Amino acid sequence: MQKRFVSIWFRQLLADWQLIRRPELKNVPFVFAAPDHGRMIITAVSPIASNFGVETGMRAADAKAICPGLEVLDDKPGRPKNLLKGLGEWCVRYSPIVAIDEFGMDGLLLDVSGCTHLWGGERGYLKEIVSRLKSKGYTVRLAIADTPGAAWAVSRYGKITPLIPTGGQVDALLDLVPDALRLTQPVLAKLRKLGFYQIKSFIGMPRSVLRRRFGEDFLLRLAQATGTENEVLVPLQVPVPFSERLACLEPIKTRNGIETAIHKLLENLCNRLRAEGKGLRTGILTCHRIDGKVVQADIGTSGATHSISHLFKLFQLKIDQIRPALGIELFVMDAPKVDDVEVPQEEMWTSTPGLDDKSLIRLLDRVAGKVGFQVIHRYLPATRYWPERSVQKALSVTEKPATTWRVTQPRPTELLKTPVPIEVMAIIPDHPPKFFIYNGVQHLVTKADGPERIEREWWLDQGVHRDYYQVEDEQGGRYWLFRSGHYGGEQKYKWFIHGFFA
Questions:
Q1: What is the pLDDT of residue 160?
Q2: What's the pLDDT score for residue 366?
Q3: φ, ψ for residue 392 (rounded to 5)?
Q4: Cα separation of 162 and 180, whole Å?
């Protein structure tokens, strides 16, 4: 696929942003200024102030002298970048790869390869972006070309069509000034001094001569613009490998329309997953509304799956959370987490499916879609001896245990996360207690069984062990107590309660 890039130049970014916030400044000349070595230097100019001859880099005091009634606003470091970041996140609806123009800090670069057909071609694509940004109050110029450098140059200095045909970036650059190559001011001054006022005056010169006179960075910028050197964009949002987009000719407002869009996206996504032997574990539906707001709905599965019907039922449970407002113009379906799908071997004789039964997994997914995955857990035995460390959460329903459950000794139905200290009276060492005090209540022990000694793993301190007892009080309550340490040993012994039997 031929790479295509779009450059969006915000001609007066800060001024437009201020006019959107304060429409009363529409007929007032104003500038942004920031302190620099004890002077206020202008960083952005409004259109009216520009008509009076005010320019960026000028001192605010000089600007006031030539522009009566000029209002000077304080600029803040990093404001243009923050504005571009917000605009870039909004432009994700037009391309998954959107980057901030770090050179001028006044534009965006989009990798639109394979995206423009959703808007009827490149001309319709550019027209859509311009009209939408203009309706929001921003003055922009756009261009599309095979390279980010060429698109950047034409959007700012081009006087021809903004649609540069495939392979036509060199011809589009010839008549432009050297500033279109994103060069530093010292290099530009040297070019003007030598009489190079257009790119065509030096583009055909030997590279060795250009390198010797203007440096390696000059050659890199020239190569990036002409396409002999690749330029990698750093996207604001890292694209998800498995992602599908669906642009709408008319805004979608109804539940039936949203369901149709979800089903279409799942068809495309699941076909890709199936072809690569993958299955979805986490799915995110992002809905871009025409008012600029973004609404999301996400699902999760207990096991990797590329079943369209199953995933569609999970998303149906989330549709009530989607507020279309005036309408949704773009749907994006992402699968940020996928796993390999294991194809089960068919068996000649039937057996109990257990957790391998797909219907059970689908039931769990639907229940989790209503109550949340955070309340459904599956536990597996862990290779640890301390009871509170002998279980671990399973990552999925199909995960296999590394060891077997220990069933040789009875265990309480409710195990405390952390053992709680208690006060105990025991008549004879190594015997169960006669009574114990837990939460301020004294429990008289009538029956007891034990001790069961549990030591730590061999690679840990072997001097620490626990002696567990099953005891029953006069009320019939059954508890799991243990003594840590030896009577008369160097380490002082302590008693704890660790669980409750049914």
A1: 83
A2: 74
A3: -145, 155
A4: 14
Residue 42 burial (CB count, 10 A)? 22
Cα–Cα distance measured from residue 427 to residue 433, given in angstroms and rounded to the nearest whole number: 7
The string of DSSP letters for 81-111 reads HHHHHHHHHHGGGT-SEEEE-TTTSSEEEEE
Q: Say how far apart CA 46 and CA 15 lie, in whole Å.
A: 5
Handedness of CA 436, 442, 448, 454 (dihedral sign): negative
Q: Which helix (H) or strand (E) holds 470?
A: strand 465-473
Could you tell me the two tokens for 64? 């006031």
Distance CA 97, CA 110 (A): 6
Dihedral (CA of 141, 146, 149, 150) sign:
negative
In one-letter notation, the amino acid at residue 189 is A
Q: Which residues of 390-421 are buried (b: 16+ CB within 10 A; e: fewer)?
A: beeebeebeeeeeeeeeeeeeebeeeeeebee
Task: Flag whether pLDDT at 172 surpasses 50.
Answer: yes
Predicted pLDDT of residue 487: 64
Q: What is the Cα–Cα distance from 257 to 177, expressed in whole angstroms?
A: 50
Residue 439 has pLDDT above 50, yes or no: yes
Please compute, for residue 358, the number of CA atoms within 13 A of its CA located in the half-sphere on the CB side: 9
Average pLDDT of the chain, as a whole number: 88
- Residue 350 is predicted with a pLDDT of 45
- 449: enclosing H helix or E strand: strand 441-455
Query: How far apart, in whole angstroms, are the C-alpha atoms of residue 283 and residue 267?
Result: 13
Give the H or E element holding residue 494: strand 494-500
pLDDT at residue 494, as a whole number? 87
For 340, list phi and psi in degrees, rounded to 5: -70, 140
- pLDDT, residue 444, reads 94
pLDDT at 493: 66
pTM across the whole model? 0.67
- Mean predicted confidence (pLDDT) in 423-433: 81
> By percentage, how much of the chain surpasses pLDDT 70?
93
pLDDT band at 110 (very low <50, low <70, confident <90, very high): very high
Distance (Å) of CA 44 to CA 39, 74, 347: 15, 10, 73
| φ, ψ of residue 341 in degrees (nearest 5) | -100, 120
DSSP 218-267: HHHHHHHHHTSS------SSPPPSSEEEEEEEEEE-SHHHHHHHHHHHHH
